[in-house]
Amino acid sequence: MKILYGTGNPAKLQAMRANLSKLDIEIIGLKDMEGEILNAPEDGKTPLENARQKAWTYFHYYQIPVFSCDSGLYIEGIPDELQPGVHVRTVHGKTLTDDEMRDYYSGLAAKYGDLTAQYINAICLIIDETHVYESMDESLFGEKFLITSKPHSSIRRPGFPIDSLSKDIASGKYYYDLEQGNVDKLVEYPGFAVLFQKWGIC
């Protein structure tokens, strides 16, 4: 089965293909579709609301099976008004570049100390009008990690600017400095593959 993953971010597409690599499905991205990339609304209050909005928009437009995901970043110990939630890349109404995101979150860590954070993830999968699957289960959540004020000295990954500020809580090391096989922990969510299998998409 060919399924459209509703993202134009090549790093996210690569990560999801890796997560679902053992399933007998072909994952394509928005850049694989003909014509302009459609902009879908993302004005929900939760990751699931945003995932649902995007999935239905892409399904109605492209008329093929599609799934969309959305994430919210939740940080312990900061004021509620600074909580990014689903607006990880938007601050004071402005959409930040990778560099601006890195500067903003490193600034928060400089002000409040190393921040304990977690990505809350959701998915909406639409096969057709009558086969729709949704989840914001804890199995989709990322592990808790630290956001520090000093970026990694050398590595920058386009599309994942916060990763260069991210440290493993147990070791205190940057994720980029962990042994091979653990480097991509922040975007490895085995719960997605389990859900696809549960839903019979395998």
Describe the structure.
The structure is a single chain. This protein has 202 residues and is α+β, with helices and mostly antiparallel strands. Helix content is 24%, strand content 23%. Strands 1, 2, 3, 6, 7, 8 and 9 form a seven-stranded mixed beta sheet that branches. A two-stranded antiparallel sheet has the order 4-5. The chain is globular. The model has no long low-confidence stretch (mean pLDDT 91).
What's a concise summary of this model?
The chain is about 25% helix and about 25% strand. The protein has about 200 residues and is α+β, with helices and mostly antiparallel strands. The mean pLDDT is about 90.
Which value, in Å, is the CA radius of gyration? Answer: 17 Å
**Sequence stretches where pLDDT stays below 50 over 5 or more residues:** none
Number of DSSP strand runs: 9
| Spatial shape | globular
Structural class: alpha+beta
What's the number of helices?
4
Q: Mean pLDDT, nearest integer? A: 91
End-to-end Cα distance: 8 Å
Largest sheet: 7 strands, mixed
Strand content: 15-25%
The percent range for helix content is 10-25%
